[in-house]
């Protein structure tokens, strides 16, 4: 495949993902017809089936795109980077259809016959890696189990966004993430490190 063809295929795939995300976010999995997705993208059903194989294939692509959609280009590392990523996630959950659809599909997948923990495990792996970096740099208390903390953060963020969506349409999700860190940081980081970790959404790029 030539470079031009590869770029065209990438653009087509992205158009389909964005259209599917909007439809899934609006209607859920059951209410999202592949014909609506293709129509919203301005493409044919053949293009959708070529790139994803089925509606389930599109849903899986959206669920598994979450981590790569979220991790921003930040200068921070270790524990600060982990905090920053969760704050960017909370902000983008309010306006990024691909992220919102991926999260909704992952949480609701049992209702449409899917049972795929990949998206949650991708987040766990990303967060564990950042915690391991923090541990190597002396940012964590002795004995902190990085995998256990990573699992907790993934579970906490999943639950928070569901609660926030029901309560405020996710308007308070960033505040809830800040509350999580206010409770969690003192238990995993030495006081001197904790004091230097910024949990300020205004200091984090929104994209």
TrEMBL record:
The superkingdom listed in its UniProt entry is: Bacteria
All residue ranges annotated as the HTH tetR-type domain in the record:
10-70
What PROSITE patterns does the database record attribute to this sequence?
HTH_TETR_2
Q: Which UniProt keywords apply?
A: DNA-binding, Transcription, Transcription regulation
Q: Please give the DNA-binding region boundaries.
A: 33-52
The entry lists its GO molecular-function terms as: DNA-binding transcription factor activity; transcription cis-regulatory region binding
> What is the recorded name of this protein?
Gamma-butyrolactone-binding protein
Q: What organism, scientifically named, is this protein from?
A: Streptomyces capoamus
* Organism classification: Bacteria, Bacillati, Actinomycetota, Actinomycetes, Kitasatosporales
